[in-house]
Amino acid sequence: DTAVSQTPKYLVTQMGNDKSIKCEQNLGHDTMYWYKQDSKKFLKIMFSYNNKELIINETVPNRFSPKSPDKAHLNLHINSLELGDSAVYFCASSHRQAVVHGYTFGSGTRLTVV
Amino acid sequence: AQSVTQLDSHVSVSEGTPVLLRCNYSSSYSPSLFWYVQHPNKGLQLLLKYTSAATLVKGINGFEAEFKKSETSFHLTKPSAHMSDAAEYFCVVSGSGTYKYIFGTGTRLKVLA
To answer: Closest by alpha carbon to B31, among B92, B113, B112, B111?
Structure first.
């Protein structure tokens, strides 16, 4: 199936741990994104990569680091997890001309920090 | 700067009655506008998009939206609600770069039997 796939779907971890969320797309898109959705359903962009280069880096703590080994993958690594990091994280992809085609979103990773 | 305001955080309709979800935008240039739907515990799915072509845009599942520049609005409508339409709906405007979306705060649609 053509899609944006994220793993894991659920992640429960303790404060202070380091964790990664993986994202892969097989749509041939050249741009990938990470969005954070908080408990009030508000969605905010965190990062965007185009052809493995960082093009958007919003104000997120340095504990969050995206890694793009190739244009089909954009992983999110989070160090020293805090309670406030609990949220749903969505990966998305698009062609560079996103305004025409729109984004394709993954199904999300629900991160719970305890 | 671009911004988008969804005027209702919750909307309840009876099955078979019309749906209206309101969205106003602010943009310093001709925007691209989108509506996305998020069903419970699911990702976001594109419903429809406006990209400076026809002002009345038809999307999936019988939804449509009309771009009104004079009112800076992009309201989402459907003639007859179905139980399966119950979900969270997001209005989105494209940001100052090609890549970044600005999301509204969402409208939760409840469909009553």
So the answer is: B92
d(C-alpha A58, C-alpha A40), whole Å: 19
Residue B109, SS3?
A: strand
From chain A, pick out residues whose CB is under 8 angstroms from the CB of B49.
102
Among A6-15, A79-88, A99-108, which stretch is predicted with the lowest mean pLDDT? A99-108
Q: What's the CA gap between B3 and B5, in Å, rounded?
A: 7
Q: How far is A111 from chain B (nearest CA, A)?
A: 13
Give the H/E segment covering residue A101.
helix A98-101
Chain B residues with CB-CB distance to A33 below 8 A = 99
Distance, first Cα to last Cα, chain A: 34
Residues A50/A57, Cβ–Cβ less than 8 Å: no
pLDDT tens readout for residues A10-55? 999 999 999 999 999 999 998 899 999 998 888 988 988 887 788 7
Q: Give me the mean pLDDT over the B77-97 stretch.
A: 90
Model pLDDT for residues A48-60, shown as the tens digit of each residue:
888 778 877 777 8
- Maximal C-alpha separation, chain B: 43
